[in-house]
Amino acid sequence: xxxxxxxxxxxERRKAQRRHFGVLIGMVALLGGxxxxxxxxVIAGNIAxxxxxxxxxxxxxxxxxxxxxxIKKLKEEIxxxxxxxxxxxxxxxxxxxxxxxxxxxxxxxxxxxxLKALKQDGLKVNVTGYAFSDTRxxxxxxxxxxxxxxxxxxxxxxxxxxxxxKRLSEFNLNFWMKRPVTEEAQKAGPASKGGxxxxxxx
Length: 202
Description:
The chain has a 4-stranded antiparallel β-sheet, covered by helices on one side. The chain has helices at residues 7-95, 97-108, 134-146, 183-188, 197-201, and strands spanning 113-121, 124-131, 150-163, 166-177. By secondary structure, the chain is of the alpha+beta class. It contains 5 helices and 4 strands.
């Protein structure tokens, strides 16, 4: 009977299995490391891309802030120019007030009324003069109230006076000129055409 010793074969087989197992473990470790590196690389890439987007947004926000600041300055300059234009328009309107005052006053003064003195304080005008009668003074006041540029005629005093041997009524009255309407107020419409401060007080 032939006897075969299988112990060396079994030992070699176990060694081979251990080597094979070690190789598998090494391959798994390498594969796991590769996966970890890949995931890390993807995450790092995403982070870098997000940081790039963040930097871009920061730069764009900085540009927008500069643009907003420029727009704000432009708006302030526009408002300043509009304010200057408003002042110029008002000055031009007020400059023509004296001419309009005299022209309108001559047209509204009825026969039998003679003006002696005229004094203007802003929109308020004080007039003194003589009239043939108190009725003429009343007519004069009515025509002032009906005038396009005048309003709120108020009689301060009337008294008898002798002028050149004639008995006349000497009167003293106030009235107000209507505030001149600027170009902006005309564009704004009827809502901007309120009465003068003096008229509202009355």
